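Report of the visiting student (M.T.), summer placement. My assignment was to run the structure pipeline on a short list of targets and document each run. The first record concerns Epoxyqueuosine reductase.
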Amino acid sequence: MELRAKYTAFIRQHAADLGFDHCGIAKAVQLDDDARRLEKWLHKGMHGSMHYMENNFDKRIDPRKLVDGAKSVITLLLNYYPHEQQLTDAPKISKYAYGHDYHEVIKAKLNTLLARMQEEFGAVSGRGFVDSAPVLERAWAQRSGLGWLGKNGNLIHKQAGSFFFIATLITDLDLEYDGPVGDYCGSCTRCLDACPTGALVEPGVVDGSRCISYFTIELKDLLIPDNMKGQFDNWMFGCDVCQDVCPWNRFSKPNKTVEFTPIPEILNFSTKDWEELTEEEFKRIFRRSPMKRSKYAGIRRNLRFVNG
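After the run finished, the structure tokens were exported:
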């Protein structure tokens, strides 16, 4: 077996052993088309107050500027679809935040995968990224055949839907590459029609500055703009509407990652429980949750807003 095939088979096997659900690999090149789309999106101000999106533009579009001598971009998907759902009348929380912070969980897996590659192959350069660095992970997932970008802007896998975290490992190894798959959204517009705030301005384009996830997580202002009142459909942290209505998510299956087991309070808290939650209790209960990103003050702000 030639080296490229041997390396590729090893990586796919060990990614699966670490619990990743899907693995795709693409050649490390500059993303010219995606660069133009990103530039246009930023120019229109659709990133709102997320000014970090303007930084490191050259690194976002070229992985070779993140890892010297990069030849391959490995994309890994980890399912987070939960076994259980929240109480129906409670303030809603995005499913990705039900369990432990995915950054911590996935970063550990990426570090282990890279370490195993170095043990097996010798001097391998690489860096793992998960939603915290200038990497266009959905573009790489699409290029490596893991799905297509839906009209809601999410990566959709034909056999498994879209409730996945996307991780990226850029390496200087020369590997066998996958090719992109087709777009299977067809004439469906369910996500566009269902978005509570009209953030899906056209197929595949999300106006981040109108998205409920932006207001409830990214926005650091003390107040949410009054003109958004009555549009949040009781979402207190994030929003899953465009995924919940997607027909492809009928194929979603509960995840197998122990760390993503829902925190009991997320499933069982009523509106009254959230209102009575103290800062000390918040820090204790959600110390390993993505919800700590909004901090106690942010959760209180969001709760006041959705409760009118």
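The beta strands are 22-27, 72-79, 92-93, 126-129, 148-149, 155-156, 164-171, 200-202, 205-206, 235-237. The longest helix spans residues 102-121. I thank the supervising group for their guidance throughout the placement.
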